[in-house]
Design brief:
2 helices, mainly alpha, 0% strand, elongated
Length: 89
């Protein structure tokens, strides 16, 4: 039995009915991609490593990027303002 991973919903929400049933990437994927891009900017010299070493490094970057994304989503849910009570008309 697998647990659903909290993904934060769509990264770039659109109005209902404009996605042809596709929501695009999740906010979790967006956060992870941003982290991976930042991590790779400091990866100078990877070309001198073997392919196996690069693949191993990329797997580590991917794992860490999703750990960061999960932490960002957790912090985001803690800092979200409470919903305001419904107003009566």
């Amino acid at each position: 039995m697998s647990m659903k991973i909290e993904d934060g919903g769509p990264a770039f929400p659109v109005l209902y009915g404009q996605t042809n049933g596709l929501d695009g990437m999740s906010l979790r994927d967006w956060f992870a991609g941003q982290q991976a891009a930042a991590a790779m900017t400091s990866a100078n010299g990877l070309g001198s490593f073997s392919k196996a070493e690069r693949v191993a490094a990329f797997k580590i970057v991917a794992e860490i990027s999703y750990e960061v994304a999960d932490a960002l989503l957790a912090a985001r849910s803690k800092s979200a303002p409470a919903p305001s009570p419904a107003r009566s008309a």
